């Protein structure tokens, strides 16, 4: 399970994975204080996407994507065009 090197590639792949099958996708955030690393993992058991950072400015990006995915998960409307509007 390699880590993505750029945030843009990871965010695009995570959104695509979620929209492909919303019922199977899981999102995990893990922070290791001793290393100062924040890791975000998006998986559907067949594909696993990971992004790790120790930069403070990336935390806002991760928070924004995580919030976007959570809003999609709880919304009752169709998931087809929801990601393009944000």
From TrEMBL:
Cellular compartment(s)? Cytoplasm
Q: Which UniProt keywords apply?
A: Cytoplasm, Ribonucleoprotein, RNA-binding, Signal recognition particle
One GO molecular-function entry: 7S RNA binding
Q: Which Pfam families match?
A: SRP9-21
Q: What is its main location?
A: cytoplasm
Task: Supply one GO BP term.
Answer: negative regulation of translational elongation
Domain of life assignment:
Eukaryota
Q: What InterPro entries would the database entry show?
A: Signal_recog_particle_SRP9/14 (IPR009018), SRP9 (IPR008832), SRP9-like (IPR039914), SRP9_dom (IPR039432)
Identify the residues that the record assigns to the SRP9 domain, covering every copy.
Answer: 5-73
One GO CC annotation, please? cytosol
Role summary? Component of the signal recognition particle (SRP) complex, a ribonucleoprotein complex that mediates the cotranslational targeting of secretory and membrane proteins to the endoplasmic reticulum (ER). SRP9 together with SRP14 and the Alu portion of the SRP RNA, constitutes the elongation arrest domain of SRP. The complex of SRP9 and SRP14 is required for SRP RNA binding.
Q: Which family does it belong to?
A: Belongs to the SRP9 family.
Fill in the subunit field for this protein.
Heterodimer with SRP14; binds RNA as heterodimer. Component of a signal recognition particle complex that consists of a 7SL RNA molecule of 300 nucleotides and six protein subunits: SRP72, SRP68, SRP54, SRP19, SRP14 and SRP9.
Question: What's this protein's name?
Answer: Signal recognition particle 9 kDa protein
| Organism this protein belongs to | Chanos chanos
What lineage, starting at the top, does this entry show? Eukaryota, Metazoa, Chordata, Craniata, Vertebrata
